[in-house]
Amino acid sequence: MDNILIFGPPGSGKGTNSKELSKQFGLKHINTGEKIREEGVKKTKFGLYAKRLIDFGNLVPDEILIPEMRNWIMDDWNEQGFIFDGYPRSISQSKELDQFLRLRKNPITHFISLDAPKEILKERITSRNEGRADDSPEFFDTRYSHFLKRKKPIIDYFKNDGRFEFIEIDSSGTPEIVLNEIIKQLNY
Hints:
The chain is built from eight helices and five strands; from the N terminus they run βαβαααβαβααβα.
């Protein structure tokens, strides 16, 4: 079983690559942002609260999101493993997810860090046509700032621990180039 975390700033290609890897390797794709938006559409208490936050580029607090993530994992349990897209976004989420999966004898196996220059990321976000409120130029800076504040502790946790295969990818190329590089680095 493989559990792969795809980490990176907004517009780095987390979703695009997670979907492709999921198809190619039979891993269950858990997209945190998508799950939150689904809960918003269902008008659950969590979904309405989270929607108000993310529509303005803010993050859902750990104490609210972590229990929801545990439920999503258990609801979507997949024997082949998971690809986590957009999660974790804090050091506490990182440690909790690591512990949660180890307790279930299905540890995190790979951490893939995607990154590209800020100008490329902003262009990608503001030009996509998904109709997301948080894709506007004014909210990109807020989202990017949140990412930068949390990046180093998360990277350090997964890079220095030694239990995870840590992979860094320059995601400024085309989706095909980036996906091929990820697959090459994963040694599948």
